[in-house]
TrEMBL record:
Transmembrane segments: none annotated. Keywords: Signal. Residues 1-20 form the signal peptide. This is Peptidoglycan/xylan/chitin deacetylase (PgdA/CDA1 family). PROSITE patterns: NODB. One of its GO terms (molecular function) is hydrolase activity, acting on carbon-nitrogen (but not peptide) bonds. Pfam families: Polysacc_deac_1. GO terms for biological process: carbohydrate metabolic process. Residues 44-229 form the NodB homology domain.
Amino acid sequence: MRHPVATLAVPLTGAALAHALPAVTARNTPRRLTPHLAGEGRPGGVALTFDDGPDPLGTPAVLETLAGLGWRATFFMLGSQVRQHPAIARQVVDAGHEVAVHGTVHRNHLTRTPLAVRRDIRLAVEQITGTTGVRPRWFRPPYGIFSGGTHWAARDLGLVPVLWTAWGKDWRAGPPVQIVAEVMHTLRDGGTVLLHDSDCTSRPGSWRSTVAALPLLAARVRAQGLEVRPLADHLAAPC
Ligand SMILES: [Zn+2]
């Protein structure tokens, strides 16, 4: 399948590139990708995922809020962040959450060779596993963008790629109500939510808006009778 991102003709640079590309990906995710790759799981709930951590400020704040809500989530970590903040990575696991792989550095795979992509992902798996004691199962590339090398590397390393069906665009550090509105715009029963517990690729302090949005999101999700869970539960095969 040809990825829609590859058809982009508009030159994009810097921050515009960083966030315009995933927009294209996400708009096409539910229809063009397989349900599993898009993060569509069992009915009756939604998966909650956080990218770009661990962050020494954002991640503990997210963990505290999740504990108050009684939610468990999946954290797609960057190997570079885990190397800088190993204790925070371990806190995520100790709190009962799931760790997953986002790569070592946050670079678009379309700009890298397949071997470089594989090495990047392999090093991230080793960093996360060595630090937390848990070998990740799920993988999500930076910006949600796949190259041919991404698919090959993930398969070769025994990882399962998972994107998302709804996101809060929380990197903009907008009002929490706006983050929740963005999520609810496309969130359906069985969907997967993307948020960020780190501002390492976002506006500084953006995680504060994310943290403030979580209780508001809880009210909306509960009103629909949906539970919130990590991907391991969400994508489990029905009994
Ligand atoms: Zn990211």
